[in-house]
Here is the input.
Amino acid sequence: MRRYVAKRVGQAVLVLWAAWTLAFILLSALPGDSVSNRISDPEANISPEGAKLLLEYYGLDRPLWEQYLHSLWSVLHGDFGYSLTNATAVESLIGQALPATVKLTTLGLVFGVAFASLVAVTINYAPWAWLRNLAGSIPALFASVPTFVVGIMALQYLSFRFHLIPSVDDGSLRALIAPAATLGILVAAPIAQVLATSIRKTRNQPFVHVLHAKGAGEGFIFRKDVLRNSSLPVLTLLGLAFGELIAGSVVTESVYARNGIGMITVNAVNTQDLPVVQGVVLLSTLIYVAINLAVDLAYPFIDPRILIDTKTAKRKAKAVRADVPAPEPVRRRLPAEVAMP
Amino acid sequence: MRPLRSRLLLTSAALATTASLLLAACGGGSTSGNGGDAGEPVYGGTLTVYDPVQYAAWNPTNSLWSNTQVTPTLAERLIWQDPETGEFKPWLAESWEVSDDHLSYTFHLRSDVTFSNGDPLDGETVALNFDQHGKGDAAKGIPVDPWWANYVGTDVPDPHTVVVKFSEPNAAQLQVFSNYRAASILGKPYLALDFQGQGKLENWVGTGPFTVDSVDGTTGVTLVRRDDYDWAPEGSDHEGKAYLEKIVFKVVPEAGTRVGALASGEAQVARNIAPYDEETVTAQGGVVEAFPVQGETNDLTIQLDAKAPTQDKNVRLALIAATDREEINETVLSPSYPIPTSALTQGTPLRGDSSKYLGYDLDKAKQLLEEAGWVEGKDGIREKDGQRLHFESWVAPYYQVSQSVLELLQSQWKKAGIELNINAVSQTEYESLRLARGDKWTFEQGQQSTAEPGVLYASYGSKRSNATHNPTPDTVLEGLLEAQSQEFDPTKRAAIIQQIEDRIFSEGYSDPLYDETQVFGLAPSVQGFKTESTARSWWYDTWLSE
Here is the structure.
C-alpha cells in the first residue's frame, strides 16, 4: 500500500511540473504577450521607451529560458508572481476566486450525480416502457445542449420573468442554485449513461438471478449488490468529470457573472496573462491529480480484492480504468453461482 | 483566418432597421440627464452598474473603458472641460493663467480640498503627480506619459500655486490638464507606490466625491460617498456631497443579462448596449443614452506602407466614395451613432466640416477606379494586369460593432467592383498581426479619443502614432499638424484644422465609418447621469428617483 501511494504521488508531481511547463511553452509560443498587447492598444498611447521600461519591469525582456527558470524557482518557493494585467499577486487573485468556484463545482457535482442517479435508475427500474425510453434519451439531450444555452434560458425565465433567482452572484445560496444546476446537467450526461449501462449489466449477472431465485426483493438487491457493483466505473468517471466541471465553470461563471476561477481564466487567456494562466493550470492540475489519486485509493474500499496482492491490485486498477464503458463487475464467488445452470 | 460573410448580417440588419425606426426620436449626443419631470433630486440609495469588461490594473493612465467608468469620480483634475462646449472651468484650481510664450501654466489651487486620507491638497502633491506623468519613474517602473511631451517641470512658489513649464508651446496642452488619464491628482501615499502598487484600486487616494469601499477581484467594485466633499467643478447641477450613497460596479459579460437586469431592477445602469438591444431596453421602459466619444471618428485608416492597390490615390478616394455611411448607420447601427461629417466626432471642439468628401457616390467611385485602370472582370470584381481589386480586413476587437460594419462595407464596396475579405481573430492575434504589419495590412480600424482637435496630430503626426504609416511623410500634412499645435487663436486654429481635414480626405488617408459613441442603458429611476468629455461616467450629479 505504501509503495502504491508513493508511486502515485511521484507521478502526480511529475504531471504538475509537465502541465506547468507546457502552459509556459504554449503561451510563450503564441504571438504577442500581455504587456505588448497593452502597449499596442490604440487608446493606451505608450511610447517605445515606455514600452521598454514596462517590459524590463516585468522581466519580459530577458531570454525565454531565463524567464522559465526564474519563474520555476519562484514557484518552488511559493511565489507565483504577479498578474501582468491586474497588478495583483496570482495567489491572491486565485485565492479570492477559489471559494466561489469550489462552492459552485461541488454543488454542481452533487446535482450532477443526483440527476444521473435518478435518470439511471429510471432507465432500469421504471415500471412503464415509455418512461424507460424517455429517460434513455435524456443523457444524449443533456450532453448536446450547450451550457450557455441552459444558462441563458434559466436566466430569462427564472430570473427576469419569474424573479425566482438573482441574475448575478449576490453571494446568496439562492444565486448559486441555477448555476450549479446548469453545471450539474453538463456532468450528469456521461455519468447517467455509464451508470445506466453498468446497472443493466450487473442486473444480468448470474448472481443476481440467483439472488432473485433465493427470494430477495428488487430494492434489497439494488441497495446491497447492484449499486455497489455498478459504481466502480462511475467512480472513475467522477475523477474525469472534474475536468468537465472546471471547463464548465468557465462558461457558467461568465453567463451568471460569478467571480471565480472560470472568469479569471477567460480574462487571463484573452489577455495572455502568463503568470495567471500558469497559476490556474497548476491549480486545476493539482486538483485533478488529487481527485484521481483519491479515486485510485478508493478502489480498494469498494473492491477489497484490489489489495489482495499489490501486483494484481495495480494491474486491476489499470484494467478498471481502461474499461470505463464496460467494466468487469465485482463478482462475489458465491457457492450458488457455481451451481448456476 | 476564416472569411466571414455571415447570414447573421441579414438578421441583424433587419433588427437594427426596426430599431432605428422606433428609436428615431431617441438619438443625439446629449450629456444631460434623462428627464426633467422626476422632481427634486433626492439623496441616498445604491446604484448598480453592469459593465461587460473585466477590470485591468488601475494605474491612472489606464484608459480601459470599464476601469474609466470608475476612476474619474475617485480622483479629480485641476480644471473641468465642459463636455458640450469644450470650455474649461475651475475645479481643483480656482483660476489659472497661461504665459505669453505659452510655455508655463500657473494654477491657483483651492485651499479647502482634502484627499480621502485627510491630507490637504497642496502644490507639492500636484507637482509630484505631474512629475510622475512627465518624467516617469524608472525605479518604480512608471513609464513617461506620452501626453506630457516637452514637460520641463513644476515649480511650487507657494503651497497653493503651481507653475507647470514646457519647452515647446502646444495649443492642446490646456486640455491635458482636464483629462482623466493624463492629469488626475492622486495623494502622496499613492504616488509613493511602484507601478504594481499603483495598479490596485484599494490604494487610490483621491479628492473625488466617492471613495473605494471594496474591490472584488477583477469583476466588482463598490464606491461609497464622501460626506465632506464640497468642491464640485463649476457647472455641476448641485454642490456639496454627491446624491448617491453607494455605487456598485459589477462585470457582467453576457449582453442579455445586462439588458434583462435593467428591466428586473437588479441594475440601474448597463454599459455597452448593442445597437440591436437598444429597442429591447426602451421596450422594457428603460432609457438609452448615447454619448459621443470626442476625438477622431471611427475610421479605416489606409496603411500607406501596404503593397496594395491603395498606393494609388484614386483607389483610396474610390473606397471613400463607395462607402455609404448613412446605410451603415441605418442598417447595422442606430441613431445613437452620428454619421461622420468630419475627421472628428460631433462635439469635438473646433472640428471641421468635411461632408463634401464623405457623401456616398457610387458613380464617382467607379469612375475613379476606371481612371486608375481597374476594369470590371467576369464576376464583377475589377481587375488590372491580371490582379483582382481585393483587400483583406480584420475585425477590430476593441469595437463591438466592428464586424457588422465591415460586413456591410463588404457589400457596399462590391457594388463598385471592390472585393473585401473579412477576417475575425482573437484580440491577441489581432495585436500581433497589427505589430507585424505586412502587405495585406491595408486598413486599420480605430480612433483616438480626446476632446481636442490636436488629437489629429497625435494620430497622424509621423513622429507620433503615424496612423497611415506613410513611408515618406506628407510634408504638407506635417506642416499643418505642427501649425495647429502652435496656434492659440481659436478661429485661426479652426481654419488650420479644416485644412488638415481637407488634406486627409483629398489624399484619401481615412475612410470614416461612424462617430465613436458609448451607449448606456438606464433604468427609468436614474436621473442626472453624466459623462465627461470622452464619455467616461461622472457620477456626482446622478440620483435615483422613486
Q: What stands out?
A: The longest helix of chain A spans residues 218-255. Chain A touches chain B through 51 residues (CB under 8 Å). The CA atoms of residues 210 and 216 of chain A lie 9 Å apart. Residues 326-341 of chain A have pLDDT under 50 and may be disordered.
